[in-house]
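re the bet — no i am not wrong, look at it urself. input seq straight from the record:
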Amino acid sequence: MESIGKELATTWAESMFGTAALGDVRRNRRVISMVAAVAQRPGGTIAAVFDNPAELAGAYDLVENNAVDPAALAEAIARDAAERARRHFYVWVATDGTSHTITDRTQSKGTGRLTAARMKTRGDKIHDALVIDPDGVPLGLSSVQSWQRPNRPARKSHGRRDTADKETQRWLDARAQTRDALGEHAPGVVCHFLHDREADCWPVLLDAIAHREGEFTTVRAQWDRRLVASDPTADSAAERLREALAGTEVLGELELDIPAGPGRSARTARLEVRACAVTLDLRDRRRETHYAAPVYVVCAREVGTAPAGCKALEWLLLTTYPADTLEACFHLVRGYSFRWRIERFHLAWKSACTDVEATQLWDSDHRARWSLILASVAVLMMRCQFLALEAPDTDAREVFTESEIEAVRDMQKAQVVPEQGRVTLWQMVVAIAYLGGWPGSNKRPPGLVPLTRGWQRVAAYILGTRRRDERARRQEITAKLAGKLP
C-alpha cells in the first residue's frame, strides 16, 4: 500500500534513524523529516518531494554532506529490521541483486557499466536483503550494498578468480551483515535465507553448510550438480541431482497462490512435491578442490494448472532445512514463495512507489544517501500493503490520519469508504486504488502502481486543502488587524 499517515511515517523514521550514528542529532532530525516527507509525497527526485525552498535546501544539504556515512544509514535500517524481528521465533530473509540506471553519457557521475562493456547502459549495482515475518509481511532491510562495476570486464574467467574479486562476494556479505544484525539485536531468532538461482555457487552453499547449526538456507538450483556417491561400487548410484530425485516417490501435493511476473500469470498452482537427502560434489575450479556438501533437495513441480502458453512452475530447491517430512516440505515451499517479496520491493523502490531511478544526482555517495532514504519508505509502503492483505479488518486509523480518511471520502466516486463510522484498512486500500485507475478484480488485489497513483492524488488534495485553509486564516487575521487600524 502506497499511502501512509504522517504520524505512522514519522514514527517509522524515528524508530529507524533516531539513534543512527550520523555525528550530529540535527542530521538525524533532518533524515526523519525527509522520510516522513517522502512517505507523504512519494517521488524519485528531491525536487519532486520538497516544494518548500527551505526544506528543499535542507534535503540537498543532507544528501551532499560527506560527513553523513551511507553505511551508517544502512546499519540503522538493518538494526530496525532486526528489532522488528525479535517478536518472532523465526524470519525469512530474501536476498537478491538489482541495479539503478543513471543517465551518464559522459561518465562523469561515478557510475559503472550495468551490462556488457560494449553497452552504454550505466548506473549503480545494488544487493540487498529483505527480512520477512512468518506470514510473509516485510519487516525491513537487513543489508543494502551499493557499488559500481569497472568499465572493463575482468580478464580472467569467472571460475579462475577469487571469490572476493567476484560479485558472488555480495551474496556472502549480505548473509554476513544480516547474521550480524540479527545476532546483535534479535538473538535467538532463527534466520532462513532464501536465494534465487544466481546464488547456486559453491561459496554460498559452503557458507550455508558452515552455519547450518544456527540458521537455514534455501537456494533454487541452477545446475544439475554432480553428487558424491555414498557407495561408489554400486551400479545404481545416482550421479546427478535430478537423477536422484527421479528415483523418489511423490510425497504429496499442495496449492500455492502464484503472483504475476514476467512470463508468468497469476494463479493458484497445484504442485507435486518430491524430496531426498543428497551430498553435493562442489568444485572450486581455481584450486581444483572438491567439497562434499550434505543438503536436502526438494522439487516442487506444477501439474495441471499452468495456463496455455505459460511454462509450468518448477522449483528445484537445495536446502539445509531438514526437509524429511511432507509437512517440512510444504513449509519450505511456502516459505520460498515469499522470495518474490524482494522483487516486489525492488519494483516499489525503483519505479512503482519512490521511483529511485528518476534521480540524477552527480555523485555516487549522494545517490546512496538518497536511495537509502527512499528504500526505507518503499519498504514501509510495501509492509502496509501486505498488512492490508493479511489483516484487512484492521482499523484504518492505525495507518491513516483522520484528514487522510476524510480526503478519500471527499474524492471517491464509488462509496467504498463509508461516510460515517469505522473504516477498515482494506476499504481505504481499495478506494485509493480506484482513484489510481484500478479496474477492480475478484482474483487479484490492487498492485503497487495504481495505489501509488491514487495516493499521489490524495496527497495533492490534502496539500491543496491545507494551503487553502492557511491562506484563509491569513486573510482572516489581516482583516481583523485592518479593522483595528484608525
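see?? The longest helix spans residues 448-484. told u. also The mean pLDDT is 85. so pay up
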